[in-house]
Structure formats: structure tokens, C-alpha cells
């Protein structure tokens, strides 16, 4: 075997070093060598290369450890990352520094169905506006999540049911050309899971399910401390698990998918039906006043004691719990985190989900299984997108 036949082993030291500075702040050269468990000479050489590349800088002498004082090293204050979370009905953008602290943010309603040209043009306008306001001079990387299946390798959505016109659209390449930096594209549920694990209630949990309940339903999966995306990037798309073979037609074309029987759109549909029938006085009143009803009206009605609203929430929680119970028995996660817009339905939803999961899954799998609401809430997506952008900028993603 000749040298050229040997597999190339990536140099992960820059990523490990930069991630340590991202998560811990300024550290001395000696501390970096100790924490990385690498020869000091190798760490010093890597730091010098990163200083030359503008990613880190020296930050003065460290506290004495009994001998000659080492020099503190920190991430460059000029590093800027863009984190973008595209929802079915919203655009959220944050500009962060290298430690993922927000520098600027912007959020607005949007309709993902208006197509990639319209939505991405608006994303570019938002970034240009933030740049003009002084949030950044140049971006080191962009992380973006979209509400549909994604080929992580190719940086494109693939046959996304609620995103007409987005199939195979070159999201990564377009944004990269526009902003002159590398771009990583992932499913919105994956970036929410990454965000919650990095800075939320699931910090450092090894085996995690993150369930997003919103316009659509999806599940981010962490196994052994790594996001599991599946062979083609569509792992966790539980919104299209069939729950009722005679149920409503789903956006994917099949019958009775979880997303078709309980999601933001499905709940609004069912709420409208009971409002028109007069079964729910609270929803009938909202319909007469506003001309429409949605999930927030159901939540308000349940809080006011409307029994039909309570039933709608519990029925939805039962369906979600049934789907999760199968995943719990199969994967045996150490935590389930629930996020997305339908979290506003409150404790009745969470209680029903917990009840079904704990009742239907094996006791060994649920004996130490917390099922909790997201700590980051609507910021989970941009936090996760920023984490992915930092890993791309720091050399951890190909």
C-alpha cells in the first residue's frame, strides 16, 4: 500500500480548540493544552495558525499557576455568524459573535408557501439591513433551518410537503454566493434539537428526542451525543406516521398522518368545526368576534374551562403520546423535549402526552424519562443554527 492509498484523517484539533473557547471563554495556552490532552507544542502551533487566520487573538497574561504566566487566548471579537430559522409562517434571524452571544436579531411573519425566491430574497434583505446597522462586516458562516426534509450533504430541501417550489432548490449554494461564506442547511426540528441540547434544558443529554409541535410535526433525534439524520436526511419525520387509516388527507398525500390529525393547521380546522356547530361556546364567540379561530383560541378556551377545548387538547395529546410511546420503546431516550407553537396549549397537552407515554411504553424505558417543555422556546431554532454555523466556520463540517 502506498501513502496515497491511506484514508485521510481530518485534523479535528482546530474544531476542538475553537469549540472550547466558544463554550468556556478565554483560556490560557496551558489550560488549552491540558483540557485538549494534546502535546503543548502541537497546541501552540495550532493557536499560532488560528491567530494568523484571524479566528483567535491573545488576550493578555493569565493568572499565575506558580511559574511563568501563560497567555490568555480568546475568540476574535470580529467573528460573526448568521443563524436563520425558517418556519411555515415565520422568519427568525440572529447575528451572533463567535461565542454564540446574540449581536442583533430580527423576526417577522412569512409564508413558506410563497416559494424559495420570495422567502430567500427577504432573508437576504434582512441580513443586508442588519449589516447596514453595524451588526457585522462579514460573516464567517450561515446556519439555516427549513420546515421540511433536507439532504444535509447537498444543502437542499427534498420533496418538502408544506414547501411548494422548494424541492431541490439550491439554498446552500445561493446563500453562499450571496454572502461569500460557507452555509449549512438542516431541517428545522434538527436545529431546534441542537439548540436545546446546547443551551437549553437538555444540555449535554446523550440520547434525546426533541418533538416540534407546530404547523407541522417533526422529531429531532440525538443518539450517543450526535444528531441522527438517517441515510438521506429524513429521520424523525414522525408527522407522517399514520395514526388513522381513515383520517384526513395529509399534505403528503397519505391518509391519517399524525400531522393531518393533530398539528397547528389540524387544530384550527377542528376548532372551526366545533365553533360553527356551537359545541364550544368559547370558540363560537371567538369566531363571531374575529371571523376565525386558531390554536391560541383553543388554549384560551381551555383555560376558561370550555370542555370542548379541553377535549381537543387532550385528544391531540393522546395522539402525540401514542406516536412517542413507540419511539420510546424503540430508541430508549434519556429525555424528551417538546417545543413549537402548540406548546402554548399548556399543561393539559403535556399531561396527556406524559400519561400515554408512561402507560404505553415499557417501565424500564420510562422509569427515569423526563418529558419536559423546551427551555429556549422560540429561540431554540436560531440557537441550533448558530451552533451549526460555528462548527462549519471552525472546520467541523465538510
From TrEMBL:
<dbReference type="InterPro" id="IPR036388">
    <property type="entry name" value="WH-like_DNA-bd_sf"/>
</dbReference>
<protein>
    <submittedName>
        <fullName>ROK family transcriptional regulator</fullName>
    </submittedName>
</protein>
<dbReference type="InterPro" id="IPR043129">
    <property type="entry name" value="ATPase_NBD"/>
</dbReference>
<dbReference type="InterPro" id="IPR000600">
    <property type="entry name" value="ROK"/>
</dbReference>
<dbReference type="Pfam" id="PF00480">
    <property type="entry name" value="ROK"/>
</dbReference>
<dbReference type="InterPro" id="IPR036390">
    <property type="entry name" value="WH_DNA-bd_sf"/>
</dbReference>
<comment type="similarity">
    <text>Belongs to the ROK (NagC/XylR) family.</text>
</comment>
<dbReference type="InterPro" id="IPR049874">
    <property type="entry name" value="ROK_cs"/>
</dbReference>
